[in-house]
From TrEMBL:
GO terms for molecular function: methyltransferase activity. It is found in: Golgi apparatus membrane. Keywords: Membrane, Methyltransferase, Transferase, Transmembrane, Transmembrane helix. One of its GO terms (cellular component) is Golgi membrane. InterPro entries: IRX15/GXM/AGM. It comes from Nicotiana attenuata (Coyote tobacco). It is a single-pass membrane protein. This is Methyltransferase. NCBIfam families: A_thal_3515. The chain crosses the membrane at residues 15-35.
Length: 286
């Protein structure tokens, strides 16, 4: 989900152009199959289908048009998503049965059109750290819904923040709150009301950047996603997907807050968790 200049996408190589084009065409077919499947899918949270959304210019966004635009975009694009087709299918298999639903995505990039099209009749919100990157992406895809997030953490603080979590009462699973939680450094305490007021059925964590010391790291995103899932009042579990689990911090924080017992599938560098609400999970994260 990160910016292309930060390895959001694999660089194109002339010697594999043919293979890449075949993959892109295959991806377009993959998306088209999803659209046919999603028409008969199970509604999430008993929501009625969203027959159209309004853009900032007042025009209504037609879900079918979004799907067609997505097919055209990926059939002609020269870049490929950071996630592999096998990794994408892990979340695709759930989304095709959950849409329309509330889908929260940490990260904004060229694959965001794909995620939005998978849930074209639902609510998909992207959280991105870089305001300039938001402007760049929305310039070509104004129908995407994105908020800018200010993180209070740095990757270099990952170990220190684990100690902070154990010592700070407002970080405890018993309290589990985000809005205005200034004492817990892992809590995303200044998000938009929309994030706090909705119950998110599916959460994808593929940002913020977490590969150099001064980067925000994904510690707060993982912790906050776990809190959102525990605070769920509706039926069922929250599906959380964490990418780049080959990295030390992602793996440590996943096992601390998302829990091995909730891990239902792992493919490549992505883990899929099903997190029950606190009423079914007790007073501890894990």
């Amino acid at each position: 989900m990160q910016k292309q200049s930060h390895s959001h996408f694999k660089p194109e190589k002339s010697w594999c152009l043919v293979i890449a084009l075949v993959g892109l065409i295959g991806g377009a077919l993959f998306i088209s199959v999803f659209f046919k499947t999603s028409e008969n899918s199970i509604l999430c949270n008993n929501q009625a289908p969203n027959m159209g959304k309004f853009l900032d210019n007042g025009k209504r966004l037609n879900p079918q048009q979004l799907q067609l635009d997505a097919i055209l975009h990926y059939a002609t694009s020269r870049v490929i998503p950071q996630q592999s087709i096998d990794e994408i299918r892990v979340s695709f298999d759930v989304l095709k049965n959950k849409t329309p639903c509330n889908f929260l995505v940490f990260g904004l990039g060229h694959d965001s059109i794909m995620w939005a099209s998978f849930n074209s009749r639902g609510n998909t919100l992207f959280l991105e750290e870089d305001p300039k990157w938001v402007e760049t992406i929305l310039k070509d895809a104004p129908f995407l819904h994105a908020d800018t997030v200010k993180y209070r953490t740095m990757l270099s603080e990952a170990d220190e923040l684990v100690e902070h979590y154990h010592k700070e009462p407002d970080c405890s699973a018993k309290k589990s709150f985000l809005r205005g939680n200034h004492r817990c450094k892992l809590a995303l305490d200044m998000l938009s009301d929309e994030v706090y007021n909705k119950e998110w059925d599916v959460i994808m964590i593929d940002a913020p950047r977490g590969y150099f010391a001064e980067a925000p790291g994904r510690m707060a995103a993982i912790y906050s996603a776990a809190v959102m899932a525990r605070n769920r009042k509706g039926n069922g579990v929250t599906h959380i997907y964490l990418h780049d689990v080959d990295r030390k911090v992602e793996k440590i924080y996943a096992e601390l807050f998302l829990c091995r017992k909730n891990l239902v599938k792992g493919v490549g560098r992505i883990w899929h968790f099903e997190i029950p609400p606190a009423s079914n999970a007790g007073n501890n994260f894990c």
